[in-house]
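Work Package 3 (structural annotation) set out to generate three-dimensional models for the target panel prioritized at the project kickoff. During this period the team completed the workflow that converts sequence records into discrete structure tokens, so that structures can be stored uniformly alongside our sequence database. As a representative example, we reproduce one entry of 354 residues exactly as it appears in the project archive.
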Amino acid sequence: MDKYIGFDIDCKEVVACVVENGKKDIYRTFSADIDSMRKFLMEQKRSGDRVEMAFEISGEAGFIYDSLIDCVDEIKVANPTKTTWIYRTSKKNDRIDARKMAVLMSIDELPCVYMPNKEVRLWRQSILHRQKIVRNKVKAKNQIRAVLKSQGYKKPENSGGWWTKVNRLWMRQFSGEIIGADTLWCLQLGNLLDELELLEMQLVRVTKYLDDYLAKHPGSKLLMSTPGVGPRTTESVLAYTDDVSRFNNFKQYCSYFGMTPKLDESGSTRRLGHISKHGPSVVRCMICESSWIAIRKSKALKGFYERVKCGQDGRKKIAIVAVARKLLSIMRAMLISGEMFNEGLVNEMLKQAA
């Protein structure tokens, strides 16, 4: 007989619900540590029944998944946003949440998220870490310019950009002139310059690691043969795709990255809205940036962009999102077939789709 176990995991305790056909539901509360979870699951497994358990996605979901996978026959990681719509109830507590997952799992209606292996999860974390460093670097540069402009320095003393070596030395000279209250801005400037240098060092280190890791991936050369697609876009697509065979078609693939439009349909009325923006935002960001370069390097994609744009400047963003969605579809086909980017084949495909 099958047992379906739902875990509602808090920072201090776990509420477990065991649902078994023809038997009364069993509830148990215990400490939120891995040893306690394993002990409970092993007790349920001793009877020889098939045991399936589920818990909601969280920051530590990967660690929990790896730690408990050998204690049960199957583990599912639930998507709480979709679970709420399927199993609506006016009451909510830990016991209800645990039972909700167990019941939905027993009828095979539990909305789950894909759980990649540990190596891929760490790869994704490194990609997000680099993106955060880049954002902080941009923020530090903006703050430095704001401090200098507040003191009347609207442009750097020397020719070139703000961040040339000679202009950085010029900015550094202010940090040693802290005399009174009127020069406290120099302290802020010095701290911001220190922060910028630290972020740049961190960026170099994490970029080198990601470049070395990407070079070993079999799909890297395939995707980087696409016009406008560089290492950052390639690694984000590969990391979040993981196993391309888990997507049945290109619509499902694009939907996973939030690049398909929302649908509002009632009777004979059918409206397509903005893209859903579900899934990893880092991929959407990278693929859209690559699309601007792709339309300059690929005549086929440029033609598709112009057709969607319809000669209206107000449709530029709509057109570039459409190009980004096409790029994702092309990348999926390349990963499946193992073929490099083929301009002629892409041009023929886009003409047929027109």
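The first strand starts at residue 2 and ends at 9.
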